[in-house]
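Late entry, evening session. Most of the bench is empty. Finally got around to the prediction I had been postponing all week. Sequence below, unchanged from the version circulated by S.P.
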Amino acid sequence: MSGDEQQRVFRDVLRGLPTWDNGLGRFEAEGGDVPDVPVVLFQRWFVEAVGAGVVEPHAMALATVDGDGRPDVRTLLLHDADERGWHFASHATSAKGRQLAVSPWAALGFYWPAQGRQVRVRGAVSAAGSAESRADLAVRSTGALAAALTGRQSEVLGSAEELARASQAAWERARAEPDAPVPTWTAYVLDADEVEFFQGDAQRRHVRLRYRRTDSGWRRELLWP
């Protein structure tokens, strides 16, 4: 297939995709059931996403900036959400870890297509101490520990064979030593100052509810779609 043909096929497929025709969730942003604190609504929506059959609802986009102010984004998994904020983890030596060390601000994006819902979270990020970081890894799977022990995240890889050897050694250690230390593994918490809940609508009358932190607490406001 030529480059022009590939471009045509791509555009035809892209433009033929349905967009929120039916079966979306409902959200009454001005109702009395809307909580005062955004994490409570997030937890509620998360459980509803699981109930709607969303695959990997804990997958989220994490956006950071580097030392030159250039944005970067990747997908990773949410580890928790509570009164402290939204929790995730990575190696402090990874690209995201280095970027957060330079500019400790980030944004998260969740998308649950079965309901036409998005959640956007922005705020300051802090690194947890070594004890909390070890505890975060301790409750995860053997595979997660093996991946963490493999290390060198974001570094240039010489070959697939090199990765296979390092991974095999890491798996063997993870099985033999389930509490093996990973000094660079770091738990992070994003303390939100802004959280937006987006509910898609088939007539494009999308509902957007934003929480903004103020000196007196959280302020709720509706946004135009």
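Two things to note before I forget:
The two ends are 40 Å apart (CA to CA).
The longest strand covers residues 185-199.
Will write this up properly tomorrow.
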